[in-house]
Amino acid sequence: MKQFERITTEYVEAEDRIRMAGTLHGGELVVAWFTQRLLQRLVAALVQQLQGQGAGVPRSDGPRADMLAPDALRAQVMQGFAQQAARAKLAPQPAVLAAPDHEAWLVHEVNVAQLPQAVQLTFKGMRTGSGVERTPIGVLVLAPEPLRQWLCILYDNYRKAGWPLQVWPDWVTESAVASVPAGTTLLH
């Protein structure tokens, strides 16, 4: 299966979905659409992957998550620092552009696999108008920092869409607030 080399992720209001346009190894252009429902599950899995990288540090997802133990609080702070650093390094890039009528995929499934130094996302879905589901689309391999950056992009798109933010941990939401330039007004 071909691997994505570059992607552009954006919310499209007319579809109320998130579109990922990407180039695969070899130059093929792919457009993949994600529903909010699928992204809720994917974001939760990716957050869990990043939290798991702090091996040996208790996670704060139990029934008493509001009463963080010192180790769990330290883990949250470290996650926040790493997320802020990733957001700060997120530089504007030329977008991967696709014509509005470019053939597209509706993503139905994302397999998440932990590699030694990265997370591998295998996208499967249905080509527009084909009726054949669960066809492999492509693979996206993200080291921890690019994964955090993609989460920043997804979070920003969630906010733009007005989608529920409950799936996002504090260390992601706070990194977005911390990155807002001075003089910018935030509306809640």
Structural features:
6 strands, alpha+beta, 6-stranded mixed β-sheet, 188 residues, globular
Number of domains: 1
How would you sum up the global shape?
Answer: globular
Strand order within the widest beta sheet: 1-2-3-4-5-6
DSSP E strands, number: 6
Mean pLDDT: 86
Radius of gyration over alpha carbons?
17 Å
Query: What is the end-to-end distance?
Result: 42 Å
Separate helix tally: 4
- The low-confidence parts are 55-60, 180-188
- Approximate helicity band: 25-40%
Order of SSEs: EEEHHEEEHH
Strand residues, percent: 25-35%
Outline the biggest β-sheet.
6 strands, mixed
Broad structural category: alpha+beta
Q: What do you see in this structure?
A:
The protein is of the alpha+beta class and 188 residues long. The chain has one domain (4-178). Helix content is 34%, strand content 27%. It has four helices and six strands; from the N terminus they run E-E-E-H-H-E-E-E-H-H. The protein has helices at residues 36-52, 70-88, 144-161, 170-178, and strands at residues 4-12, 17-24, 29-34, 104-114, 119-127, 135-142. The protein has a six-stranded mixed beta sheet with strand order 1-2-3-4-5-6, with helices on both faces. Helix 2 (70-88) packs across helix 4. The radius of gyration is 17 Å and the shape is globular. The termini are far apart.
Short description:
With 188 residues, this protein is α+β, with helices and mostly antiparallel strands. It contains 4 helices and 6 strands; from the N terminus they run βββααβββαα.
